[in-house]
Amino acid sequence: DSEFCEPLASHAAVVRETLQAARRVARVAIVTLAMRPWVDNSSEWFLPGGDVKDLLEELEIPVYYAREHVTKAQRLAANQEEGVDVYTVAKRNAMKKCLR
Q1: Distance, CA of 63 to CA of 72 (rounded, Å)
Q2: In whole angstroms, how large is the CA radius of gyration of the chain?
Q3: 3-state helix/strand/coil string of the chain
Q4: Are 70 and 89 within 8 A, CB to CB?
Q5: pTM of the complete model beyond 0.90
Q6: Mean pLDDT, consecutive 10-residue segments, the chain of 100 residues?
Q7: Integer Cα distance of 18 and 91 in angstroms
């Protein structure tokens, strides 16, 4: 066992409690620039005992992978127009979708 197991498990408990508390009073969603299935994988690796995947399902908390919410046309426009960041466009699009 790693010396980090106990602190990570404690953190996993805090994450669970935070998501549960937030969900009691509001709609909750996760928006990330990571690529699928980063939320599932990283929670398994770094939140031992957190059962985050099941918790997200139970609490009906969707995960929006922002890179999946940018069109080819938006990618091309971002590459051609100075000052436009495709990742910002992706995050904006994902946030707009989750707020609908």
Answers
A1: 21
A2: 16
A3: CCCCHHHHHHHHHHHHHHHHHHHHHCCCCEEECCCCCHHHHHHHHHCCCCCHHHHHHHCCCCEEEHHHHCCHHHHHHHHHCCCCCHHHHHHHHHHHHHHC
A4: yes
A5: no
A6: 93 97 98 97 96 97 97 89 90 95
A7: 23
